[in-house]
């Protein structure tokens, strides 16, 4: 069984049936033989951006979360092990997003493949990436 951690944009695009999400990625997320993981860091990021008006969800946040729970996703908490990995991540030029860096640390710590189109993620040694 493969384990995939969704980047925040991947989660949003999948939940919103956004055409920017490649069909191969959408099919993999929907595949019952894979474990799809959503980080609490992504939910935190979505909450912040939605409350600041930088993100408009298809429905109010509480309803959006209820819809999200209908998917067979595993919700990943932030652990001390993740924070320890995060503290040792190298500085990557022009990549300081704290949510991205925490997702990278979680993927590295828990041996997850990160589903993201973010090109800067490839600069982190040992990180497994999947996009299309």
Report on this structure.
The protein is of the alpha/beta class. It has a domain at 1-80 and 127-132. Helices cover 43% and strands 14% of the residues. It has six helices and five strands. The protein has helices spanning 8-15, 23-30, 40-51, 61-68, 80-87, 98-110; strands spanning 3-6, 35-39, 73-76, 113-115, 128-130. It has a five-stranded parallel beta sheet. Helix 5 packs across helix 6. The two termini are 18 Å apart.
SSE blueprint:
Layout lengths: L2 E4 L1 H8 L7 H8 L4 E5 H12 L9 H8 L4 E4 L3 H8 L10 H13 L2 E3 L12 E3 L2
Parallel strand pairs: 1-2, 1-4, 2-3, 4-5
Helix pairs in contact: 5-6
**Structure class:** alpha/beta
Give helix and strand order, one letter per element, not per position: EHHEHHEHHEE
Q: How many whole angstroms does the radius of gyration measure?
A: 14 Å
- Helix tally equals 6
The strand line-up of the biggest sheet is 3-2-1-4-5
The average pLDDT value, as a whole number, equals 93
Share of residues in strands: 5-15%
Strand element count: 5
Sheet of most strands? 5 strands, parallel
Helix content: 40-55%
The backbone outline, from C-alpha atoms, is globular
Please mark out the parts with pLDDT under 50 across 5 or more consecutive residues, or reply none. Answer: none
Instruction: State the distance separating the first and last CA atoms.
Output: 18 Å
User: Oligomer, anyone?
Assistant: single chain
């Amino acid at each position: 069984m493969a384990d995939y951690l969704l980047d925040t944009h991947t989660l949003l695009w999948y939940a919103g049936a956004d055409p920017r999400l490649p069909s191969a990625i959408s099919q993999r997320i929907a595949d019952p033989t894979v474990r799809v993981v959503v980080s609490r860091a992504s939910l935190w990021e979505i909450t912040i951006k939605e409350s600041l008006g930088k993100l408009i969800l298809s429905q109010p946040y509480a309803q959006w979360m209820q819809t999200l729970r209908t998917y067979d996703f595993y919700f990943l908490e932030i652990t001390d092990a993740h924070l320890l990995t995060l503290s040792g991540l190298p500085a990557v030029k022009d990549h300081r997003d704290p949510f991205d860096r925490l997702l990278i640390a979680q993927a590295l710590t828990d041996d997850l493949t990160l589903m993201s189109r973010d090109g800067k993620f490839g600069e982190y040694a040992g990180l497994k990436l999947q996009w299309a």
